[in-house]
Amino acid sequence: IKDCFDLDHLYSYMTELFPSDQFIKAEYLQAIGSQKFREQDFESSINYFKECLTLKQQIFSSEHIDIARLY
Question: What pLDDT, on the 0 to 100 scale, is given for residue 64?
């Protein structure tokens, strides 16, 4: 996901394949957060990362590596 230039198109495609998959949504939010960070839009980046963290906390245990990376 990180290497895709058209994240919105990729997200739309993936949600058509897996409409209820919260992990895909979380990965999308993390990718957009990273993109905003690279663009130095830090406030937006933080908001995307926080939303991603909230979803991943619902999916994984608190000790999972994906949770640690977002902190």
Answer: 75
pLDDT at residue 22, as a whole number:
84
DSSP string, the chain: -TT-S-HHHHHHHHHHHSTT-HHHHHHHHHHHHHHHHHTT-HHHHHHHHHHHHHHHHHHS-TTSHHHHHH-
Residues 6+ apart with CB under 8 A from 11: 24, 25, 28
How far does Cα 26 stand from its chain's mean position?
4
- Radius of gyration of the CA atoms of the chain, in A: 12
Q: Which two tokens stand for residue 24?
A: 């895909």
Mean pLDDT (10-residue bins), the chain, 71 residues: 62 68 86 92 94 87 75 65
Which residue shows structure tokens 């990718």?
31
